[in-house]
Amino acid sequence: MFNIIFIGAPGVGKGTQSAFIEKDYSIAHIATGDMLRKNIEDGTNLGKTAKSYMDKGELVPDSLVIDMLNERIQKDDCKNGFMLDGFPRTMEQAKELDKILAKLNRKIDAVIDIYASDEIIIKRLLNRGRADDNEETIKNRIKVFESQSKPVLDFYKDKVKIIKIESVGTPEEVYAKIKKELDIIKNNGL
Ligand code: B4P
């Protein structure tokens, strides 16, 4: 079993890198942003509430995202392990995740701290052009990341191995750096 968390600013490449990891390590890719967008698409109550926050680049309320994650993480495809892409994004989410994992008798093996300059992030996101990828919303998402999500790294600092990766170069080049570190952890069974 191999359980990983990705922490990084919007557009830094969490989703892009998660796709490589999912394939190589055969673990479930859990992207809370994708799950919320699916709820919006399906017109669920959760989707309706989430949309009002996501359109402004704000975080969706903790209780909603935590319940969604709790249910997802217990699905069969997580038996071999999981990679959390976009969760936890607040201290409250990190603390609740600890409780959820304790109940399931599971632990986090590695946290990937992925980073790039604001300039690179803004360029990538404007290029992608998703509904929430306009300059004003992107700038707010970066601000929200700095104030609410970055502190989550401190929560894991003394508990879990943190891999720090600069997300510059092609996606394949970035992934080569991540894979090297993950293989060390996996092979040492840390
Ligand atoms: P997310 O869906 O998580 O979106 P993101 O952070 O913007 O994207 P990511 O980092 O995955 O970027 P990607 O690899 O795609 O969140 C969206 C919203 O959902 C949040 O603002 C929030 O409202 C809500 N939400 C989600 N989770 C939540 C939670 N836990 N609590 C509360 N609210 C939550 O890369 C971006 C682009 O860069 C792509 O086009 C990609 O092709 C390109 N790219 C990537 N790597 C590259 C590279 N090396 N070189 C060139 N381009 C690259």
Automatic annotation (TrEMBL):
Pfam families: ADK (PF00406). AMP binds at T32, R37, E58, L59, V60, G86, F87, P88, R89, Q93, R130, R141. One of its GO terms (molecular function) is AMP kinase activity. Pathway: Purine metabolism; AMP biosynthesis via salvage pathway; AMP from ADP: step 1/1. The keyword ATP-binding applies. It is found in: Cytoplasm. It comes from the Bacteria. InterPro entries: Adenyl_kin_sub, Adenylat/UMP-CMP_kin, Adenylat_kinase_CS, P-loop_NTPase. Keywords: ATP-binding, Cytoplasm, Kinase, Nucleotide biosynthesis, Nucleotide-binding, Transferase. Its main location: cytoplasm. Its EC number is 2.7.4.3. Residues 31-60 are annotated as: NMP. It catalyses: AMP + ATP = 2 ADP. Catalyzes the reversible transfer of the terminal phosphate group between ATP and AMP. Plays an important role in cellular energy homeostasis and in adenine nucleotide metabolism. Belongs to the adenylate kinase family. Monomer. Consists of three domains, a large central CORE domain and two small peripheral domains, NMPbind and LID, which undergo movements during catalysis. The LID domain closes over the site of phosphoryl transfer upon ATP binding. Assembling and dissambling the active center during each catalytic cycle provides an effective means to prevent ATP hydrolysis. This is Adenylate kinase.
